[in-house]
Amino acid sequence: MRFHVAFAASVPKDAAAPALNEDAWAHDDCLSCIALSDGASESYDSKSWARLLVHQYAEDQRFNAEWVARAVKGYMGRVDFDSLGWAQQRAFDRGSYATLLGLTLAENDVDLDILAVGDSLAIHVRDGVVLDTYPFTRPEQFEARPKLVSTKSASNTFLGESDFFGSCSRTWAVQPGDIVLAVTDAVGQWLLSECLNKTHGVELLLKMTSESDFSELVERLRAEHRIKLDDSTLIRLSVLEDEK
Q1: pTM of the model
Q2: Would you kindly state where each structural domain of the chain is located, as residue ranges?
Q3: What is the rounded CA–CA span in Å between residue 77 and residue 61?
Q4: Fold for domain 2-240?
Q5: Percentage of residues in the chain with pLDDT exceeding 90?
Q6: Buried b (16+ CB within 10 A) or exposed e, 133-171
Q7: pLDDT at residue 183 in the model
Q8: Phi/psi of residue 75, each to 5°?
């Protein structure tokens, strides 16, 4: 099987400053892996850190402490510390933080392997029905402070916990015709609230056909105070039979 990116769009939290959108996503050449990241606004240049994480994951899905160390080294190599202002240096010293959601078609060609660090969300849909969500299943879970991948080694100690990699991964059995949604936290929390209330949130996301459609939805939800004011990203993946 293979992925098809049926839809992808992102709405910045500040419509007047789209360049400051800290969400990022990437895929490998054969569309067998999709990665999504949400940079933490309170950290230094999290946009660049999120972009580096998704591109590295698209190239190499062997996520572990060494993988993160390589990403940190690459990030540090891009920064000219001496050219930064005093406030920027202090922010840089505090580190950059971001989520990482990785979706990879397994070698057996029938499973989807998921890596989830942080609160970006994957949603498995079949025939319009939500079968599962990961890493969260309830909207209130988004209220807790998530673990994030950081440029500061002291903030990545959770990677060394004995059960970490088991606790941040999941495998779904998928089949042709299934839809997998990957969303950042604002959209994820809203969608789980919709599922809890048995409303038609997932139907709206399945019907998106243009960036303006998604932007209008997010802006309407913000005006109604139904979604958090944050960068909001949706990627809709179709699971297809592999081309022979």
Answers
A1: 0.94
A2: 2-240
A3: 22
A4: Phosphatase 2c; domain 1 (3.60.40)
A5: 72
A6: bbbbeebeebeeebbbbbbeeebbeebeeeebeeebbbe
A7: 98
A8: -65, -45
